[in-house]
Design goal:
Layout lengths: L12 H8 L7 H4 L7 E5 L2 E4 L4 E4 L2 H4 L8 H13 L12 H13 L15 E5 L2 H20 L6 E4 L8 H6 L3 H7 L7 E3 L19 H4 L5 H20 L14 E4 L3 E2 L5 E2 L4 H11 L3 E5 L13 H5 L5 E4 L11 E5 L1 H5 L21 H15 L4 H15 L8 E7 L2 E9 L4 E2 L6 H11 L2 E2 L6 E4 L7 H19 L1
Parallel strand pairs: 3-16, 5-6, 5-7, 7-10, 10-11
Antiparallel strand pairs: 1-2, 2-3, 4-12, 8-9, 11-12, 13-14, 14-15, 14-17
Helix pairs in contact: 4-14, 5-14, 10-11, 15-17, 16-17
This protein binds pyridoxal-5'-phosphate.
């Protein structure tokens, strides 16, 4: 089926798109029915389509864009780098901007946050790749192999959190816990274990009665989500002792080898924000059992939750840190996995020992990405620093207030400049909209008509803009969220 409309030209990009392109995470049968929005340009927080219509980018171009589109400083950094060279092989050659960016990344992970001292190992080594999935794939492989080498474990094991999304490569899907994706690819995946998500709004242990505020504030529980982590680790340890897979406590992990989580907020899971203290408690358990942790900060990194990295907000530093999306301010595909000197040393040896990390990508440490990434860092430390981001978070909190009056708004979860708005049939009962009601999609379609672009996660609306957004733009955008919810669902 093709949706050629009468006035479409043979080279109309929308028509070419529908004829030739296969879009990610998209039911193409639906995609081919309606002329898509074709983005032709952008400036600041605004995107402009090929018909000249303007939209506010309330999904930060799939959570990548930090400083706005066509940002003068980033454009200049990119152009300057192009005048030197765009790309050379990462194999056997170094370049100028990538080591500088690596140093910046490593140094910046050492900082405490404004509010917290951060405990944990030093992250000194940076492995560049291309996107969030590859950053996670690298973390998984490094963690697996380093554990095997250091402790002689035959098969290090992983545990991650229900609903987690860590990317689409086979390793990342194995670590992920989205049932829908597992159904298709289950037989291709390696086994990993799961603990419950700290999803207060829908937690079976939450005995509280819904109030018109974030469920984390009205929850009544006994931290059963943390106890479950403890008992899963304990159970695995007892299994390992029984089968002889566990060594002495001094021999490293005697339970799961690696815990994987997005600190502070699980993004694609539905913007599930962790109750304060969850991360610290859970990481303490992970450490007590000698396990490592991989922090997936593909979404939360680069100031999204407040401090530069979400682990700083939680006060606990990981052994592996996966970064992508915002690394280049939303300009170019580039990712990084950071880890410790100790992990790095497991891969050192003479050539014929073959201890090399046999993994890599052609565009690793790309100069254009690195040059823009460095400039983006500068903006994160100046114009869009933590206090500016705190100011935006305040505007957002204020703009969200009226949404609590809508009976179909069940929960609003905000961490810094990231928001998830969960839509329900009735806030008092928390009854969800049935899948076929397509509540999130309908509201987002209405928002598009109102000049606001975002993408739902099921019945959760996302609000995440570039940091260049103004107070006025924030207020108006959130008014439109309320308007779209009312007109579609009430
Ligand atoms: C937390 C998290 N990890 C990994 C990924 C995968 O990143 P990418 O789409 O760049 O491969 C995503 C993407 O949304 C993500 O949100």
């Amino acid at each position: 089926m093709n949706s050629k409309e009468p006035d479409q030209q043979p080279n109309d990009p929308a028509s070419l798109d529908q004829t030739y392109l296969w879009r990610p995470f998209t039911q193409m049968q639906d995609w081919m029915q309606v002329r898509p929005v074709v983005i032709a340009s952008g400036s600041g927080a605004t995107l402009v389509d090929d018909q000249g219509r303007e939209y506010l980018d309330c999904n930060a171009s799939i959570w990548t864009n930090l400083h706005g589109h066509k940002r003068r400083e980033l454009d200049a950094a990119l152009k300057n780098q192009i005048d030197q060279i765009s790309h050379s092989s990462p194999l056997g050659l170094s370049n100028i901007p990538a080591p500088l960016l690596a140093q910046k990344l490593a140094d910046s992970t050492q900082n405490d946050s404004v509010d917290n001292r951060v405990e944990g190992p030093e992250l000194k080594k940076v492995f560049f790749s291309d996107d969030g999935s590859t950053a996670m794939e690298v973390a998984l492989k490094l963690s697996f192999e380093a554990t095997r080498r250091r402790y002689g474990k035959a098969k290090p094991s992983f545990i991650s959190v229900k609903n987690a999304y860590h990317g689409d490569t086979i390793g990342a899907v194995s670590a992920g816990k989205v049932d829908l994706f597992h159904q298709s690819f289950g037989p291709m995946l390696f086994p990993t274990e799961t603990v419950m998500s700290p999803y207060c709004y829908r937690c079976p242990f939450n005995q509280g009665t819904p109030e018109r505020t974030d469920a984390r504030l009205w929850r009544r529980c006994h931290w059963e989500c943390v106890s479950e982590v403890e008992s899963r680790f304990d159970e695995e340890k007892r299994n390992n002792i029984r089968t002889g897979a566990a060594g002495n406590d001094d021999d490293g992990p005697n339970s799961f080898s690696t815990f994987i989580v997005e600190p502070i907020m699980q993004g694609a899971a539905g913007m599930i924000a962790q109750p304060e203290g969850w991360l610290q408690r859970v990481i303490q358990i992970v450490r007590d059992y000698g396990a490592q942790w991989i922090a997936d900060e593909v979404m939360t990194g680069f100031g999204r939750t407040g401090p530069l990295f979400a682990f700083q907000k939680g006060g606990v530093r990981p052994d592996f840190l996966a970064l992508a999306k915002g690394l280049t301010g939303g300009y170019l595909p580039m990712a990084a996995t950071l880890t410790t000197e100790e992990v790095f040393e497991e891969f050192l040896g003479s050539y014929e020992d073959f201890k090399t990390f046999f993994h890599g990508h052609s565009y690793t440490a790309n100069q254009l990405g690195a040059a823009v990434g460095l400039k983006s860092f500068e903006l994160l430390e100046t114009t869009h620093n933590e206090s500016h981001r705190t100011k935006i978070a305040g505007w957002i909190r204020e703009g969200l207030r009226p949404l609590w009056n809508l009976p179909v708004v069940g929960d609003i979860r905000q961490e810094g400049t990231v928001v998830g708005i969960e839509l329900v049939k009735d806030w008092k009962t928390r009854e969800p909209f049935p899948l076929e009601a397509q509540a999130g999609i309908r509201v987002c379609n209405r928002l598009k008509e109102l000049g606001v672009l975002t993408r739902p996660i099921g019945s959760v609306l996302v609000f995440m803009t570039p940091y260049c957004i103004s107070e006025e733009e924030t207020r108006k955008a959130l008014e439109k969220y309320a308007q779209a919810i009312q007109s579609e669902l009430m």
